[in-house]
Amino acid sequence: MSDPRATLLNGDLFDCIVRVREASVDLVVADPPYGLGKDYGNDSDRLSGEAYLAFSRRWIDAVIPKLKPSGCLYVFLTWQHSPEVFSYLKTRLTMVNEIVWDRKVPSMGGSTRKFSSVHDTIGLFARSKDYFFDIDGVRIPYDAETKRARTRSIFVGKKWLEVGYNPKDVWSVTRIHRQDPEREDHPTQKPLEIAERMVLASCPAEGLVLDPFMGSGTVAVAALRHGRQFVGFEINPEYCARAKRRVARLCKSDVEPVTNPIRSARRSIIRGVPLIPERCRSGWDRARCQGESSSACRRSNARGGPPPSAGYT
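Below the sequence we write its predicted structure tokens.
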């Protein structure tokens, strides 16, 4: 990985988060374990009941101080836990939206004892009422037929007809299926389109995006494609390695920011991300060097700091 705007760390978020400066993050996109027993190569998704809610409160309390006063947080959840988690978040932040992600699941199959669940719930929360939100960055263009239907004089020259409409709070975006070209080997990978919409709407150009549950690196790709900085944590070393390879492919391709399905911001290169430049705490090599080369870890041991590829300033 060679992009100076990105720092991808293999480690537990509660260990890694202390390295991020307080009030330095513009946007948090959190896709925590849902507590549904998914296999992430560890037992991180096997919490339930009060244990899951306690874990949720803990990560929320760890992340919120890192947000700027104008910062926002998106969190993916399911109906099983969203009421309780949203209630707790509303004691710490201002709730802006409840978004329904319609996964566009095929109509075949499903439960015979209840209505089949075909959506995820996304909460949008802000640190203050003066939060950043760029609606023009995510407007959806009207199709030609709609524009032709608005040819009467009262519509001529209207900005909204030219720039497109505001996305609503139901996002119909097809889930990542096994044959999808975006597909990485991760059981709950989110579509890039959703991550891009969050980044463009809620993070200013050159701002910093934090993903505490990085998974396959979708949010990292969204941030870098649109000229933002990124820092992310992933506890599973295999997933972290995949995310790093994914970012490396993006850097190698040297592609311009995407323009579809939503408008992109200008691209820029930032020198590193604002992480605390202090000496590492004990246990770095065991807890955080996973995924780094052994030679990098040996060099970090010699000087008492993290490996060079960790991106610390």
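The mean pLDDT is 79.
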